[in-house]
Design a protein that fits this description.
mainly alpha; 2 domains; four-stranded mixed sheet; 60% helix; 4% strand; disordered N terminus
């Protein structure tokens, strides 16, 4: 059994020295992080994905407006928009990708730190967790090279796991309280980056339950700090306070920018329930799920999971303050797998949500010499898979045909022009430098919130109609959408002027006021 314990006294009395002599694991982990970045650097200049573009458009204009986030609507929490706004400040599209690179580097370092936290007396403890993070964050099979909510929330999850473990082994209830605050704050930050990133809370709850049950079963003072007070109570209180503080800060900050709490709740929570039923009707969900599962298998992650589960062992507790981390780690893995499967859309970047659980499992597995060799072989296989995926994407890049449409619009648009793309593909608008008077930049909100296109019809009929209308395929029709309300206004107010890369391009009639 891997135990959470106070650092051995020898660690506390270790003489000062160089960083290399004190923290040799940090050097190796940093090298793993830098190696992982090699999988990202070649794609830094590639065109943004529709999701990246849409989030950038939302973040750039976030302020009081007519919709949820300024003039746009997206079913994501405010911390994600704030992080993308930070990427925009770093340099727009390049800044967003730079933020992704920084996130990957920090995540690998935190994965190593997690291994060190779990087993501070085992010199090799950080290596397998860091290698696991590096390999899985570098593979395009997990959506690597694209910045998304799962990626941006990853450092917060890993940091929260570290804080939760430190809280259970704190020598005083005061320290347990503060580590609990850190865990709760990090967990809330992750959940406010994407709603299903609840890993820290799942882990913390399981950890507290295991601690309480173990103490009650053995009749020992496990979970009690040196000052005689239970660390579980201090941890729970601190986590609650930390989460509440971050939630209040996020909601208050969003309200100051015009995003009200009620509207935020509707978008982040209520909308997801409505969207779940709509996604069941999607004809593409099945094929995308198959692609996601094949990508998961191709990455080698299930093989790594299997090997770690086989070698997950139970040992004997040495003292009264130790907590078994196996069950909490398994709870995190189970939660992440469930979150991926119930996501509905099944995009590849959902798989990044599995990384914290695999890293945690690698950290809590007692990898003795013989076992380390088997895990090393599996990680080598995963590395080969990652390199092959990077090479394949390098030779066969994702077809971004929408860039041709964006170039077409950018060359012809006049200052003050606006555009609507039906439905989604915000990368056309972002690349062309055009704003949209229609608040829905993604297709799912259209299908849930404006399925009969009454909002779009009112826009096309009114004075603020877009200058350009870009329609994917031959018309507005798509699954779950009724076009009867909006279609007449296209013929009345727009001229079809060209077809580009599978898109029909309409411009407002010159005689229109």
């Amino acid at each position: 059994m891997l135990l959470v314990e106070n650092p051995p006294p020898s660690d506390l009395r270790r003489p000062a020295g160089s960083l290399v002599h004190q923290r040799p694991w940090l050097i190796v982990v940093a090298l793993a992080a830098l190696t992982c970045l090699l999988g990202w650097v070649p794609f830094m200049g590639r065109p943004l994905s529709p999701d990246e573009s849409g989030l950038l458009m939302v973040a750039r204009q976030w302020g009081p407006g007519d919709s949820l986030y300024g003039n746009y609507w997206v079913d994501r929490p405010p911390v994600l928009i704030a992080l993308v706004a930070l990427g925009n400040l770093l340099g727009g599209a390049w800044g967003l990708r730079l933020l992704g690179v920084i996130t990957v580097f920090c995540s690998v370092l935190l994965a190593g730190r997690l291994g060190r936290t779990v087993a501070p007396d085992r010199p090799t403890a950080p290596l397998v967790p860091a290698a696991t993070a590096a390999v899985l964050l570098g593979t395009p099979l997990f959506g690597g090279s694209v910045v998304n909510a799962e990626l941006l929330g990853l450092p917060l999850i890993l940091g929260g796991l570290i804080a939760a473990i430190n809280s259970t082994r704190a020598p005083t209830s005061r320290e347990a309280l503060w580590w609990g605050v850190a865990a709760g704050a990090a967990g809330a930050g992750a959940a406010l980056t994407k709603q299903n990133l609840l890993d820290v809370f799942v882990f913390g709850l399981a950890l507290l339950l295991v601690s309480v049950v173990t103490r009650a079963r053995r009749g020992v003072r496990g979970g009690v700090a040196r000052d005689g007070r239970p660390t579980e109570a201090a941890t729970a209180l601190g986590a609650t306070a930390g989460a509440a503080a971050v939630l209040a800060l996020a909601v208050g900050g969003a309200a100051a920018l015009g995003t009200g709490p009620a509207e935020l709740w509707s978008a982040v929570v209520s909308f997801r329930w409505e969207a779940a039923s709509v996604l069941l009707e999607s004809p593409s969900s099945g094929p995308r799920l198959q692609v996601l599962l094949w990508a998961l298998l191709g990455s080698g992650a299930p093989l790594l999971l299997g090997v770690l589960l086989v070698h997950l062992r139970r040992g004997e507790a040495v003292g009264s303050e130790h907590v078994d981390l196996r069950l909490p780690a398994l709870a995190v893995v189970a939660w992440e797998a469930t979150a991926v499967l119930v996501g509905g859309s099944y995009w590849l970047h959902y798989l990044i949500g599995l990384v914290p659980g695999l890293v945690l499992l690698a950290a809590v597995t007692d990898l003795r010499a013989r076992i380390r060799r088997s895990v090393s072989i599996v990680l080598a296989m995963l590395t080969v898979s990652t390199l092959c995926a990077i090479a394949w994407v390098g030779v066969h890049p994702i077809d971004r045909s929408e860039q041709e449409v964006a170039s077409y619009l950018a060359a012809r648009a006049q200052p003050g022009d606006t555009a609507v793309v039906t439905f989604g593909v915000a990368s056309i608008l972002e690349s062309a430098g055009l704003e949209s008077p229609y608040p829905n930049l993604w297709s799912l909100p259209v299908r849930v919130r404006d399925a009969h296109l009454h909002e779009l019809a009112a826009l096309l009929a009114g004075p603020d109609r877009p200058t350009w209308l870009v329609i994917s395929g031959i018309g507005l029709g798509s699954w779950g959408i009724d076009t009867s309300a909006a279609q007449p206004y296209i013929a009345k107010h727009y001229d079809r002027i060209d077809d580009v890369a599978g898109y029909r391009i309409f411009r407002e009639k010159r005689s229109q006021p």
